[in-house]
Amino acid sequence: MSQINDTRMIEMMRGTPPPTWEQTCLDLDKKLADSRQHVTELENRLRALWDKLEGERKHYMEHLQLNEELVSEIEQENERLKEQNKRQNETIDSLREMYAKEAKP
């Protein structure tokens, strides 16, 4: 309250009339409207950033899923090749034993 009186005294000393309550209310209403507009703009920007983030997250999750599927396929192929290599080595060992027996008199 003291600050309001001080403000009025300063304005009267300067020769400017103090604002009326109506003008003060109009000024506050304008500031409130400006603040609401600013909040709306910030909300819209936040929504746009959130949508962008969601799009990127979805994109990377799809790539992650694809990579996991590829890794699984590579692991299966690796196991298949190991088994194939094992069978081939067994065949080679069998052939070596067979030739070694035939070579002995």
Question: Can you walk me through this structure?
Answer:
This protein is mostly helical. It has one domain (19-103). The chain contains 2 helices and no strands. The protein has helices at residues 2-14, 21-103. The radius of gyration is 42 Å and the shape is rod-shaped. 0% of the residues are buried. The model has no long low-confidence stretch (mean pLDDT 89).
Assembly state (oligomeric) = single chain
Provide the domain count: 1
Helix tally equals: 2
- Strand percentage lies at under 5%
What is the number of strand segments?
Answer: 0
Tell me the radius of gyration.
42 Å
Q: What is the residue-mean pLDDT, rounded to a whole number?
A: 89
Percent helix among the residues? over 70%
Q: Globular, elongated, flat, extended or rod-shaped: what is the shape?
A: rod-shaped
The sequence of SSEs as H and E is HH
Structural class: mainly alpha
Largest sheet: none
Termini, distance in Å? 123 Å
Question: Segments where pLDDT lies below 50 for 5+ residues?
Answer: none
Descriptive tags:
about 100 residues; mainly alpha; 2 helices; about 90% helix
Topology of helices and strands:
Blueprint: H1 2-14, H2 21-103
